[in-house]
Amino acid sequence: AQTVTQSQPEMSVQEAxxxxxxxxxxxxxxxxxxxxxxxxxxxxxILVIRQEAYKQQNATENRFSVNFQKAAKSFSxxxxxxxxxxxxxxxxxxxxxxxxxxxxxTQVVVTP
Amino acid sequence: xxxxxxxxxxxxxxxxxHVTLRCSPISGHKSVSWYQQVLGQGPQFIxxxxxxxxxxxxNFPDRFSARQFPNYSSELNVNALLLxxxxxxxxxxxxxxxxxxxxxxxxxxxxxxxx
Lengths: 112, 115
Fold this sequence. Notes:
The complex is a heterodimer of chains A (112) and B (115).
Chain A: E1 3-5, E2 10-14, E3 19-21, E4 24-26, E5 33-39, E6 46-52, E7 60-61, E8 64-69, E9 74-79, E10 88-96, E11 99-102, E12 106-111
Parallel strand pairs in A: 2-12
Antiparallel strand pairs in A: 1-4, 3-9, 5-6, 5-10, 7-8, 8-9, 10-11, 10-12
Chain B: E1 5-7, E2 10-13, E3 19-24, E4 31-37, E5 44-50, E6 53-57, E7 64-68, E8 74-78, E9 87-94, E10 105-106, E11 110-114
């Protein structure tokens, strides 16, 4: 069974600053994928970034990057140069054979 | 290209009724998954279908059922609705099922309210 834990219900960041969201997971799979999804008030779940567990290099997508610590089962998301449009609920998720297991989410608030 | 489309957007039902939610995947995607998102929580996996066959089922009662059609669209059916079924129901599609190498793309969801 998979479990995903996000321990930060809410994080606040000023525009142009950096914020890091924490995520820990547990899985019995040897090969798996990890994701960060963003859900704005419009409800649609948007894929932010993906990490393949067998790759040691941390994934990066523009201002978004992850710190993947496989031994510690940790998968944090860093948002650099935060923008007002980054305000949303962020979900960490693990994938096992196409079944996504989500954490409880972290609300990111961006202040001008 | 159109994304994942879900209908209806909102739905209000009463306890004991039946509901059908619909989903059209991105063109070329053959796998559809359904998730339930209760207010304030992360989505919970309900079903995955690939090539019209059920490939996975989450911890939901038999009141929940689904199917996938030859055009890869899908329906989620819920019988004997309970107040606890009130949630946002999300549909996601991917090229193939059972692989995180092909990420899932989500629709806007159907907001179901049970009175």
